[in-house]
Amino acid sequence: MRFDDHRVVITAAGRDFGRTLAIRLADLGAEVFLSARSLAAAERVRDEIRARGHRHVHAHACDLTDPASIRDFATGVAQRTDRVDILINNGARYLHGPDLLSASDSDVVDTIASGATGTVLTVKSFLPLLLNSDKPDVVTMVSACGTAGHHRSDAHDAFYAAKSAQAGFTEILSKRLRPQGVRVISLYPPDFDNPDPLSEDWESTPRKAKDALTAQSILECVLFAVAQPRDCFIKAFHFEQV
């Protein structure tokens, strides 16, 4: 499927999977509004995409721990478009360490704020633009850490808390926004390989049953979900962990 008529917002697209999403969706024709905590990081990815011949890509700064920054991001997007078709909540700070005492208070606050509060406020800020679309989708990269009973990650307890908050938010959001035609799609992957989409590894990374989950497969799940007819609400993707 091509996405030539889609306008897509992606948070935390300055690196890793957010960058992958921005590059691949632009390759498929989407107009991309990408953000990163620093404008310089967002502009680097924007320039990479423009170097591939895609002109409809825009870079914004957005600190998901700062409500004013989130509002400014939405305002900046609204100055360029009257609608958003897909909002991808990719941003959430990862915090390592299975020992609760290993992280500072500020790290705990930053982790929960970026993943939990940041996701809620991003959807709130972009909802008016989503409601202007005839095909609105909210896609949230949660994590297996947001699944009840999951314990196999070495992520810090604060990261588990942030992801559990995202899971609870998207669950109720899916029910409350459905009457307005907004689909809410959540993904719960375990740790996965994320090869550079501009490298040879993108095509050569093994993707057999014994291999770890890849960014390619997660991307294909996102594309599959948003490409479905509007009566098809795929609420969540859960993945078995190798």
TrEMBL record:
Coiled coil: none annotated. The keyword Oxidoreductase applies. Keywords: Oxidoreductase. Its EC number is 1.1.1.100. GO terms for molecular function: 3-oxoacyl-[acyl-carrier-protein] reductase (NADPH) activity. The keyword Oxidoreductase applies. Belongs to the short-chain dehydrogenases/reductases (SDR) family. PANTHER family: PKSB (PTHR24322), RETINOL DEHYDROGENASE 10 (PTHR24322:SF736). This is 3-oxoacyl-[acyl-carrier-protein] reductase FabG. The gene is fabG3.
